[in-house]
Specification:
Blueprint: H1 7-14, E1 18-22, H2 28-43, E2 47-51, E3 69-70, E4 79-82, E5 89-97, E6 100-107, E7 119-122, E8 130-134, E9 152-156, E10 165-170, H3 176-186, H4 193-206, H5 216-228, H6 232-238
Parallel strand pairs: 1-2, 1-8, 2-3, 8-9, 9-10
Antiparallel strand pairs: 4-7, 5-6
Helix pairs in contact: 2-3, 2-4, 3-4, 3-5, 4-5
């Protein structure tokens, strides 16, 4: 079991109501890890966005949370946030009042009034209360300037130091999905079925079905993710060893195997998941 220093990250998350996750380089491993983090942060009541400049294709269709993924970024976006229970909002719309934009928030019947001090306008501060960068931001080009503001956490499998990072998680050569399988529970974000499935897909693609770039912790991460995908009432029996001492729950029960390029011990450049 890996152990990261997460004290600073937990403090950053403590009062954070919004989060931004940047994945500079498109990969199944990076996107899967970013979406797993996003899903659990959203589940905890935070507003979340995942940014990757390259568009995903059908190879990413098995991942959960793709609705949280965007491929455009605008530093001048105006964000209007409401410190108000989302389940009490009936509808959000807008209208054109003589050339003036009106945002209309309709609350449910018998819900309390939205007070002025519950309306937060953000057009000159950081993009979110806490931000995560999965890898080197230099490939973002002009968008790399996003790190100049905000509370950033840098997650990296390479030994790189960033002055803008308030906290850094460095795990040499480990896939992002392996890092996150251990990191997320340490942050109090316990894996659920969707997050576990995403990380399992990322692990499998990054390691060519656990055949390259693996360590004992890689297999342990796979077990953690597989266990998270099991229904609670079945988790104990589904992950219990058989009479031969081997876990009988196949990865194929969660998602399909990747394709391998014919005649080569290399992953297909367009892996099917």
């Amino acid at each position: 079991m890996k152990n990261y220093n997460v004290a600073t990250i937990k403090n950053l998350l403590l009062n954070a109501k919004s989060a931004f996750i940047a994945v500079p380089q498109l990969s199944v491993d990076g996107v899967a890890a970013g979406l797993a983090l996003a899903l659990l942060l959203k589940k905890s009541g935070r507003n979340v966005k995942v940014f990757c400049p390259q568009k995903t294709d059908a190879n990413y269709s098995k991942l959960s949370g793709l609705d949280l993924l965007v491929n455009t970024y605008n530093a001048s976006d105006l964000v209007v946030s409401l410190d108000y229970p989302l389940d009490q909002i009936e509808q959000v719309s807008y209208n054109d009042d003589g050339g003036r934009l009106n945002l209309v928030v309709k609350t449910k019947a018998n819900s309390p009034k939205i007070e002025n001090n519950q309306i937060l306008i953000n057009n000159d501060s950081s993009i979110a209360d806490v931000c995560f960068m999965l890898g080197d931001e230099s490939s973002l080009g002009s968008n790399s300037a996003m790190t100049s503001k905000g509370n950033w956490v840098f997650i990296t499998p390479a030994d790189i130091q960033k002055t803008w990072a308030k906290a850094t998680i460095f795990d040499q050569d480990a896939p992002f999905s392996e890092i996150f399988a251990f990191l997320l529970p340490m942050l109090g974000l316990n894996l659920d079925s969707d997050a576990g499935k995403n990380l399992l897909i990322g692990l499998r693609v990054a390691t060519q079905s656990f055949s390259v770039n693996v360590s004992p912790e890689t297999f342990e991460a796979g077990a953690v993710c597989l266990r998270a995908t099991q229904p609670e009432e079945e988790a104990e029996t589904a992950t219990a060893p058989s009479a031969t001492g081997v876990n009988t729950t196949p990865f194929e029960a969660v998602e399909r195997k990747p394709s391998i390029a014919p005649g080569a011990n290399k992953p297909n450049p367009n892996p099917v998941i």
